[in-house]
Amino acid sequence: MDVVAMIAENKIREAIEKGDLNNLPNQGKPLPFEDLSHVPEELRSGYKLLKNANVLPEEIQLKKDILTLQDLIDCCHNEGEKSSFKKKLNEKVLRFHLLMERKQINCTIDFYKNKIYEKLED
Fold first, then answer.
1. Would residue 15 count as lying in a domain?
2. Into how many domains does the chain fold?
3. Is the C or the N end of the chain the one with fewer CB within 10 Å?
């Protein structure tokens, strides 16, 4: 066993003895399954890291912002504020469409690149 593994084992043993690992969420239950099959393999660890830090992907955050701004516009009675919210909404919608268009182009390029590789391997 290498030194790093021994240190890790000792730290875990100490935490168990102190009771630091008691009453953890999902204790005694299997870990929830996370299907990341739709995420490219090289991005999975980054997605998992962001998810654990409660950071949303940009397109999801933009969608949330768009819905929030739409709700604010619907409830707003002040025309000045309503105009400001509409401007912000238009910016978010434009940003969202540009982001999705770029992702679609990247997906299309990857699709055809893979098709070319398959033909070349035959």
1. yes
2. 1
3. C
